[in-house]
Design a protein that fits this description.
Radius of gyration: 16 Å
Order of helices and strands: EEEEEHHEEHHEEEEHH
Mean pLDDT: 96
Distance between the termini: 24 Å
Oligomer: single chain
Helix content: 25-40%
Shape: globular
Number of helices: 6
Number of strands: 11
Structural class: alpha+beta
Largest sheet: 7 strands, antiparallel
Length: 205
Amino acid sequence: MVKVDDIPFPPQIEKAKPLCLLGHGITDIEIHFLQIKFTAIGVYLEPEIVGHLQQWKNKSGEELAKDDDFFEALISAPGEKFLRIVVIKEIKGSQYGVQLESAVRDRLVDVDQYEEEEEEALEKVVEFFQSKYFKKDSTITFHFPATSPTAEIVFTAEGKEESKITVENANVVKMIQKWYLGGTRGVSPTTISSLANTLASKLSK
């Protein structure tokens, strides 16, 4: 097990294929010199993804972390992707939903892709989180299958049945990936740095 802020993440998970933990980190903010940690994040990808990133061979992790084109290629690369997010500091699901909504909407507006369909798809995701309460150790997973431009979001809290929603709007799905995997604009710099370092070492082989 890999520990991310004392939270265990399995090094490998089985989806359609075995996926490896290639990056991990946290989301946090600093208030009056105090670090407040919100979530721990694990990014699971197919090991073969490095085959699609060969033009970045022999770059350092530091260089890759600053290279948004690299993360754009990572997101666009074929293959399954899976994000596992574990709550460190409890918050209302609605707060998380609003953060996701504004991050995704801003990115869609930037590239002129925020139309009625995207708005509706995003509203459904926000509604899904509205009624949830993110206790410590609850998990949110995002599964992006290789075979379709969709995302399955699953929320699991102790003692409750898991609940899930599928996002079928490809533009919204891509921007959810960008929120977590979007290089310098990603929500978790520690995760981006970790991914960059892991992939740099794999690309140097």
